[in-house]
Amino acid sequence: MKNSHVNAVVVGAGAGGGVVAKELSVAGLTVVLFERGGWASFDDHDHDEIFSQRTTLLGNAYGPDNDRNRRVRVLPDGKEIIVLPNDWRYENNAACVGSGTVSYGAMAWRFMSEDFRMKSTYGHVEGSSIDDWPISYEDLEPCYEKAEWEIGVAGDDSLNPFAPPRKKPQPMPPFEHNKEAKILEAAARRLGYHPFPIPMLRNSIPFGGRPQCYRIRSCVGFACPVNAKNGTHNTVIPIALKTKNCELRTHCMVSEILVDNNGKVTGVSYFDEKKRKQTQTADIVVVSSSATETARLLLNSKSKFFPAGIGNEHDWVGRNLQGHAYAGAYGLFEEDIYDDRGPGASLAICDFNHYNPGIIGGGVLCNELTDSHIFLVE
Amino acid sequence: MSSKNISRREFAKAFSLSIGSLLFFNQCKFSYEPQYRFFSEEEATLTDAIVEQIIPTDEWLGAKDAGVTNFIDKQLVGPFSRFKTDYRSGLNSIIVTCQNIYGKKFEELSWCEQTEFLKEMERGTFSDIESKNTGNNDNFWNDNERVWKKGADRSFFELIRSHTMAGYYGSPRHGGNYMYVSYRMIGLDIPTIQGRNKHNLS
Fold first, then answer.
1. Chain A to chain B, count of Cβ pairs less than 8 Å apart?
2. Residue A358: which region, alpha, beta or left (left: phi > 0; alpha: psi -120 to 50)?
3. Tens digit of pLDDT for each residue in A46-88?
4. What ipTM was assigned to the predicted interfaces of this complex?
C-alpha cells in the first residue's frame, strides 16, 4: 500500500522532532513523525538497577533495543567492530517516543550569550573549530521562553547573577534543596560564589494537567512513575497527535532522504515495524535524529546531486562530535548528608561559566544526580 | 487451654494440607531438578563453585545460593547471548586446566585451591607463555597453551566476576539476588527504597 503524500516528514520523535511536529501540525500542515523506538513507560522496567538508561548491562530500558540498531565503530587503529546499543561504546541516546526527554535528568539550561559568540569572545583557538553561531541569544530567547512554558520548567534565575537576560520567569517555582545541597549552598556562599537551584523540567507544583514531582532518587535513567517529569512525549507530541494532522509511526527506521532529478528533496525511504522498505513522500523533510543518527542519515542519502551525502559538500557532516562530557568529584563526610530526596542534583553555580583566566569556555558546577545503589561497569 | 488445642489442631490440619498438596504435585511428576537454559549440568555446577568463590556465604547467602548461576544462565539466552562462546570455551578451559594440574574437577578442589586457581586466572598465568618455565611438568603448560588463548583466562575471570556482581546485586527479577539478599545485606528497604515506592507519595 502506498503512503499518501504529506506536507512534512519529521525524522525522530525526541526533543527536537516532537516540538517541530507540534508546531507544524498546529499550523495546519500534515505531518508524519517517525520514531525508531516505541512508546515507553516506567512499568516496562521499574526501578531496575541493571536495565535502565544509565546502567545498560541487560539493555537500554528506553531504547534502542539490541535487535535492529547496531552500529559500526571504528577503533583508533582503524579496525571496525559492531557495537550493540547497550555497549558504552555505542554512545547511546534513548530511542522511544520522547527519546532522551523520557529518561533524562531534566536540567533546563539556557545557553549564555557568550556561548553563541565563542570566537568573538575567545578569538581563534589553535586546534579547535570554535566559531560564532549565525544566530544570537537574543534571537533564541523567545524560543527558550516558549519551550519553558509549554514543556514546563521549575527554577528561579533571579538567584543566578550570571544568567542570560530573560523577559519572563520560569513557569514553576524552584525545588527546595535536598540535605546535601543545603550544605553545599552554605559552603558556596562562604566561598563567595553564587549558588542557585538548578532549573528543572520537573513539576515543582502540579503543571500541565500532571502531578507534582515526588522526588524519588531513581530519576535520571528512568521514566517518571507519576508523569511529573516533562518531555516531548507528555507535552508537545500529544498536542500534535490531537490535531489529527500528525501521524506518529513508531518502530520505523528512516534509511535515506530521497532526492529527485533536480536535486530537490521528495521524501524518505524507511523500514517499517516489520522491516519492510517503504517510501513516504513529503514537501519538507525535518531531520531531528540527534547528533549521530542525523549525520548518519545525511551521509547515507547519496545521489547525483549529493555524491557525499546531503549537506556534506565540505565534508563536515559527522565531524567534531562532542559527547556529554563532564568531570566529577566525590567527597566523604563525617556526618550523614543524605536525605533520600531525589533526583539528587539540586544546586548549581555559574561562577566558572566563562571568564576564567586562561580557560576557554568553562562550565556549570552542580551536585550530582543520585547514582543507583549499585554502579556496574561491564 | 482448649483454644490452644484448637489452634494446634488447626495448625496441624493446615500443615497436612500443604504437605498433601506437595505430595500431589510430586505425583504429577513435577520436577524440582534445576533446569538450565544454556548451561549443561556440569557447567552449572562449575559456575556455582566459581561464583561462590567471588561472593562467598557468610552471615548472608553467597552467590551460589543467591541464584547467580541461574541469573547468568538466563541472561545467556537473552542479553548476554554474545557471551555464549566465552562461557562455553572458558568453562571448558577451566575443566581441562583443573584436570591437568590437579587431576580433579574445580568444584572438588579445597576452598583454598579454588581461590588460588582463580587468582592465577586473574593474573593471566595460564595463558602466559613467558611463565612456562616454572618447573611444572611439560605436559601441563603445553596443554594450557592450547587451552587458553593469550589473555583469555584473565578476561574470562573478569567477565564472570562482573556478571556475578550483577546477578547478586541487581534486581531479583533477572534470576539472581534470591529473596533480595543483597538489598537486605546493604540495608536497603524491601521491597523498594523509601521514597521510591510509587504508591508512597508522602
1. 60
2. left
3. 888 889 998 889 999 999 998 889 899 889 999 999 999 998 8
4. 0.80
